[in-house]
Amino acid sequence: DTGVSQNPRHKITKRGQNVTFRCDPISEHNRLYWYRQTLGQGPEFLTYFQNEAQLEKSRLLSDRFSAERPKGSFSTLEIQRTEQGDSAMYLCASSLGDGSGNTIYFGEGSWLTVV
Amino acid sequence: LAKTTQPISMDSYEGQEVNITCSHNNIATNDYITWYQQFPSQGPRFIIQGYKTKVTNEVASLFIPADRKSSTLSLPRVSLSDTAVYYCLVGVDFISSGSARQLTFGSGTQLTVLP
What we know:
The structure holds 2 protein chains of 2 kinds. By secondary structure, chain A is mostly beta strands. Chain A contains no helices and 11 strands. Chain B has a 5-stranded mixed sheet, with no helix packed on it. A 4-stranded antiparallel sheet of chain B has the order 2-7-6-5, with no helix packed on it. The A-B interface holds A 4, 31, 33, 35, 41-45, 48, 50, 55-56, 58, 89, 91, 93, 95, 97, 99, 101-109, 111 and B 32, 34, 36, 41-46, 49, 51, 87, 92-95, 99-100, 102-108.
């Protein structure tokens, strides 16, 4: 399967701990996105990469959140000092970025539960 | 960013055609219209994308009037497995003048297909 891959799929952590999620985009896609989704809500944009450059960050991305895409391939999203409000599904998506509509394809998400 | 308005929920019966309309009054010239389907605990799945007039693929049709201020997703002969949340997105993953625009999800339409 050559879709967007995310891991771990589920993570339970204690408040105050750090967690890291990994995303492997579709191989030829140069754009990578992170979204967050809570129950009953649509996904909310967090940040976006063009190759290795992080080009946009939402104000939702507090200083406890950091995302990287060091070689323009996979990406990591780290949440430091987790809070219960961080409990959500974190979605990664990627797109080809050729300017022609650029369909964005999502992974299956990584569920975070902070206890 | 163009805001979208969709019905919160819709019910249908198996075998019927379902039309979900999305309003996007301030759609920009470069914006595409994209629809996603999302099942519980899964990432959104791309259904269809269009810019104007009509687009059809193996699962759905998308109707866009000339003024592009609304769009209608048409699902032919729905089945129980089409029960999901459907999101209409308006925007373009396109870098212009050094800035990127992110796609914004609304609250979606919960479609329930009844036997």
